[in-house]
Design brief:
The complex is a heteropentamer, with 2 copies of chain A, 2 copies of chain B and 1 copy of chain C. Chain B has helices spanning about 1-20, 20-40, 50-75, 80-85, 90-120, 130-155, 160-185, 195-220. Chain B is mainly alpha-helical. The two termini of chain C are about 35 Å apart. The chains are: A alpha/beta, B mainly alpha, C mainly alpha. The structure holds protoporphyrin IX containing FE, adenosine-5'-triphosphate (2 copies) and magnesium ion (2 copies). One magnesium ion binds near residues 43 and 84 of chain A.
Chain lengths: ~220, ~220, ~260, ~220, ~220
């Protein structure tokens, strides 16, 4: 199995604050990794560093084989990121948005409907402007947008937040399915029950570095 | 790549179509500015010799800046700039797609503003070819610069106020060139309107080249 | 919700039909008077006939804006106390403003045509002309605000506030000729400062004002009723939406997982 | 016990969509009420109607004794609302923000520090601009802002979201304390375990109306 | 109530102090506009002298609109408008507090712009008292109108472009009055500068009264 994320002593800085202070992690293909830790531990920063949105200022970071200190752009093609915020164009309709993201990811637009169905987004709301949707419905659109780009590496920041109980278990099965098809899932979450059930490995962050790793090899 | 450019531009234009910002809000606003300006300056009539051409481009500068702001507001609200940066489209497509959409929106503005100015100022067009070419050249320059500086400001806070500050100095030469070219086209100045027009094409070209080259860098940094 | 009084299916009633017929008749007479009977002007020649549309239009527009402001004021004052929220004041304000904008446009157009004939250009950077455009755009903005898709009561209140502020423009337009040195004719009718307005021209003008008033009243009433019908339609679709949303549960509880 | 929220057949509309389609609820002083329901059921709309941010277009709505169809502004003085979004001024420091909200609510500025301590917001971050904080830390600032205004009616939309495990249980005890001091808490949440433990009563919404009420009287 | 007004204004000004928008971004921008204009007029000295008053107010109109936008961006980002509406301050305090902060910010702008104009355009002040009073009157009118229309647009989408559309027509009379008053103060026009100044005070007063009366309604709903 090839390593999808290989971080060695990664340091990252925002403003002048070190949000990652030396992260050593190696994630293999097909894993479902839960990143946990207190508020402010550095989970979001870690995911953003994996996505290439946060510059790595020391250490070595490889994602999908690309050296993130050399080329942060190319790997993004294979990465799907769900942040704390939903990254939605509020004036578009839900379906239009997912179609746009699907097409922008190089896939067929027809993936959109399937993705929306997968997250349980009701088809009656496909043509409603995103700004009119409820918080959970928006989250579903955001998740569907990630699904529709068929990423090889899924980076999800609190994917369960805002979803109702049913959608949460549903999301878990979607992620499991993706992982079994060969994708890698790294997600941060505060829902211990749901995420432990989902994950095959738990990484605990603290103060911007790894404090525990259930799958450390 | 063309497909990507069109995809992005179509997305922006669809949002414009929904919200009708360019036609419904910015166009009347620029009209208003032309009216107010002309009136404020008319008291000292010689100032108005600046003329229709200059005021046209001042209004477009204002309207175009607003449209650029709006265009990047779309890409930054709700954390969207991450989405923009994560997009697997080629950076060139991102640049050209945004520029194309902005170009179309500014054109919409001009289609409203142009006839209005002709009417209000009672000017005669001496050279339609020059007028249209200069219009297109100026609009191209505006949209290309707008996107370049828009993305520069996008990752930052206080972009509402920063963007104009970055944009206006860059667009000032376009403003001057556009005004001169239009003055020739309207027959009030013997100057070589075509060379001013070429200047605008050169400015667009330079910014396009810089944009295509630098857009990757600009996207990298938040 | 539905405080509808006379929810007519059509926008016409016998009374307004009379109004409409008299509007048509009055217009015919006005055309006769304005184009045929009244004399050409010594200075301006035939172009002076523009006067009979130009001036009454703007006066009616003023009147409409007064009406808009007045009903906006009543709407703001009463909306909390009335069960239907005083929506009729809002409707009246909206329809009057539409008619006002229409007639302002007529003044602008006739003015520009007239300008082409007498001044040689369609446009002059003159205080009255500029302030008239300002008035026009301001009320266009008002109408734009009315069209925004938000709660009708909320929109009504916002629009009412805007109407009150926008009205400031009316005296500015009217007095602009006194405040600035202008090309445009000064206010004259009442004082008779302008010697051209005499005899038949004077009476023709007065008569045109009457005619345009009738036309405007007729249009306003109809706009009011159309808006009312639109509201009724919206209320009906809302009722349907409510009942279908209330019944959502039957469709959704089919799914398991919702137990407490 | 006096009724704090009294809704009878309340209908509310946004755009032209009926988000509340006839809500009948009466909440008494000192209760801790969980509002649950699927995504899009109308929880947020209900809370916003209670806060007077959503106009009630039919039915009768009284909050803290005020008729919300007559005066929606006065009761807000006694209401603390935590929405999906945090309502933070991102350029202020965390402490400044809470101080501002406390003072704006008519209380003393000194409440701010106590409130921040209560939600477990580390004092090292008091002078950090809010824009630099992590998602959970921001949420804590938002909650502290509500605490600092000492509301009589707490309306919380997914208060647990984004918080880490410890802060969640901590929040529960803060809310319990408030309720035992006479305040009323109405909150929407998808965290069934935590919220059932906290709440004294559960209202289930569906399709914009009440589908179940464990404490219906 | 004064305490509340000051509290709100201080909050806005503290944010301004942190972000330095008025001084760091908008002031240079308006300066730039003034310079570009001077350049476009070919540094024709007598013309510049004539136009100084008008251009000053045009620049302030532009800068003031940006500051108003920024002021309400603060209150609307991150769902903040809910917080603003939920505030238990009196509506009058909200109105006056925002207006006060905006007033101070526009004043900052003017303190930079005023001397610059005097310098660039080489004008002599004939009547300092009139100049300052007119400046204050105009700034008051700008800030009061800005807050009133800012909150009108605040709950709505597309407010970046809607706000100027609503604001500019209302501010146009202030622009005209300000220009005339300044022209008198600079000695290039014999007109009654004081009556133009009073007009600006009247406009501010009217908008303050409307604002105090209507702010409650405007806050009610988004
Ligand atoms: C676009 C161009 C024009 C506009 C926007 C315009 C606007 C107006 C307005 C707003 C009024 C109403 C004044 C009041 O009572 O408050 C008015 C009146 C009048 N206009 Fe014009 N006007 C235009 C062109 C002209 C031209 C070209 C002429 C003739 C040479 C003209 C002749 C008059 C006359 C005679 C009155 C009646 C003045 C009075 O008795 O009060 N207007 N116009
Ligand atoms: N300028 C700064 N000064 C002090 N601390 C800073 C600064 N910038 C960032 N930080 C800290 O960096 C950390 C960023 O952590 P990050 O957002 O990755 O946390 P997280 O694990 O995702 O937390 P959460 O669970 O709340 O989402 C936070 O603790 C934040 O306070
Ligand atoms: N214009 C519209 N067209 C269709 N549906 C609309 C429109 N506006 C609002 N809605 C619906 O109204 C509902 C609003 O619900 P609300 O935000 O109160 O849900 P919620 O219970 O808070 O959900 P969540 O758990 O996701 O936060 C959503 O189902 C939304 O889809
Ligand atoms: Mg995080
Ligand atoms: Mg919700």
């Amino acid at each position: 199995m090839s390593a999808v994320v290989e971080f060695e002593d990664v340091v990252a800085v925002t403003g002048s604050f070190p949000v990652l202070t030396g992260v050593d992690v190696s994630v293999n293909e097909g894993e479902i990794v839960l990143v946990r830790g207190e508020n402010g531990a550095g989970k979001t920063s870690f995911l953003r560093a994996c996505a290439g949105l946060l510059r790595v200022s020391a250490g070595s970071a490889r994602v999908l084989g690309f050296d993130m200190r050399v080329d942060r752009r190319t790997p993004r093609r294979y990465i799907g990121l769900l942040g704390h915020e939903n990254n939605l164009y509020r004036d578009l309709w839900a379906k239009e948005h997912v179609e746009f993201r699907a097409a922008a990811g190089g896939g067929p637009k027809s993936d959109a409907e399937a993705a929306l169905a997968k997250v349980g987004f009701p088809s009656t709301l496909w043509s409603v402007p995103i700004s009119a949707l409820s918080a959970g419905q928006r989250r579903k659109v955001a998740i569907a947008s990630v699904i529709a780009t068929r990423p090889r590496l899924w980076l999800l920041d609190e994917p369960h937040a805002a979803l109702d109980a049913e959608s949460r278990t549903n999301l878990n099965s979607v992620l499991r399915e993706a992982a079994s098809a060969g994708a890698t899932v790294v997600f941060a979450s505060h829902e211990s029950a749901l995420s432990k059930e989902l994950s095959s490995r738990v990484i605990t962050l603290q103060g911007g570095r790894v404090a525990g790793d259930s799958g450390a090899s | 790549m063309l497909a990507e450019v069109l995809l992005l531009a179509r997305k922006d234009l669809r949002i414009e179509w929904r919200a009708k910002v360019a036609l419904g809000q910015v166009a009347p606003l620029t009209l208003l500015i032309v009216v107010i300006f002309a009136f404020a300056l008319d008291a000292n009539a010689p100032l108005l010799e600046l003329g229709a051409g200059g005021l046209y481009w001042v209004a477009i500068l204002y309207g175009g800046t607003l449209l650029t702001q709006r265009s990047f507001e779309l890409e930054t609200e709700d954390g969207n700039f991450d989405g923009f940066r994560m997009s697997s489209m080629k950076v060139h497509s991102l640049f050209l797609g945004k520029a194309l959409a902005l170009f179309v929106q500014i054109c919409l503005l001009e289609i409203v503003l142009g006839p209005a100015i002709l009417l209000f100022y009672d000017v005669q067009v001496a050279n339609w070819a020059l007028l249209v070419t200069a219009g297109v050249a100026g609009t191209m320059a505006f949209s290309v610069c707008g996107v370049l500086w828009g993305v520069m400001a996008a990752g930052l806070r206080v972009r509402t106020t920063l963007l104009p500050l970055l944009l206006v100095p860059v667009l000032a030469p376009v403003l001057l060139a556009g005004s001169r070219a239009f003055e020739t086209a309207l027959g009030v100045r013997a100057d070589a309107g075509w060379s001013w027009t070429s200047l605008m094409f050169v400015i667009s070209a330079v910014h396009t080249v810089v944009g295509l080259g630098a857009f990757g860098f600009l996207l990298e940094e938040s | 919700m539905s405080g509808g009084t006379n929810s007519t299916e059509m926008t016409a009633t016998p009374a307004t039909r009379v109004l409409g017929v008299s509007a048509v008749a009055a217009t015919a007479l006005m055309i006769l008077l304005g184009l045929v009977i009244s004399p050409a002007d010594v200075v301006q020649g035939e172009a002076v006939r523009m006067l009979y549309l130009h001036v009454p239009s703007i006066w009616i527009a003023y009147g409409s804006f007064v009406l808009t402001s007045f009903s906006s004021l009543l709407f703001l004052a009463r909306s909390k106390r009335r069960p239907d929220g005083g929506r009729h004041y809002d409707r009246l304000a909206g329809s009057a403003a539409e008619i006002g904008v229409l007639f302002t446009a007529i003044t602008l157009i006739t003015g520009m045509l007239w300008g082409k004939v007498t001044w040689g250009t369609y446009w002059q950077w003159d205080a009255r002309l500029t302030t008239t455009v300002l008035l026009f755009v301001t009320y266009l903005g008002y109408l734009a605000l009315r069209r925004l898709p938000v709660d009708p009561m909320v929109r009504g209140r916002r629009a009412a506030v805007m109407a009150l502020i926008s009205f400031i423009n009316v005296p500015i337009v009217h007095y602009s000729v006194d405040w600035w040195r202008t090309l445009h004719q000064k206010a004259s009718l009442s004082v008779g400062r302008r010697p051209e307005i005499t005899g038949e021209m004077y009476w023709t003008l007065l008569y045109s004002v009457l005619t345009v008033t009738i036309i405007a009243a007729w249009l306003t009433v109809h706009r009011y009723r159309v808006i009312r019908l639109e509201e009724l339609r919206d209320e009906e679709t809302l009722e349907q939406l409510i009942s279908s949303r209330r019944n959502e549960e039957t469709a959704d509880t089919a799914e398991p997982g919702d137990t407490i």
